[in-house]
Structure of Transposase Tc1-like domain-containing protein:
Amino acid sequence: MVAAAIGKAISATTVRRRLHKNGLYARIRVCVHLSIQSKGVRFKLCRQHVNWTVSDWGNVMFADESRFALQPDDKCVRVWREQGTRNRPENITEQHAFRGLSIMVREGISLGYRTNLRIYRRGSVTAVRYRDEVLDPIVILYAAAVGPSFILTIWGR
């Protein structure tokens, strides 16, 4: 693209060096912050349970998930910009849907227990699949062992 614009070949290293010379560096775009609603839910949970004992917290299972890219396209959009210009409109780029291979993993932890790492290699994790592969065989059994004081906490954005 640069070669067509200036009429001669130029290496990626030369382009990068010139951008650096002018104070521009590749930066990974800012991650999505917790929504106001999610922050409120977490704060409310903390306030409600501020006086809990270690034994009380033993009844809580925290669950979370992460996606890992198996190909270089990891949805990290890098933009060339000056330091301190993160949110300027000219530094925001369109992001296309991820089309590469990835895996989704999920695990739950509590004070005295952790679930096995669940790896989803294919397909979407729908509500039905989550119920059939996580809730029914893992969480429901653990909840039954803990008893009526069991709490499942899934941290969302």
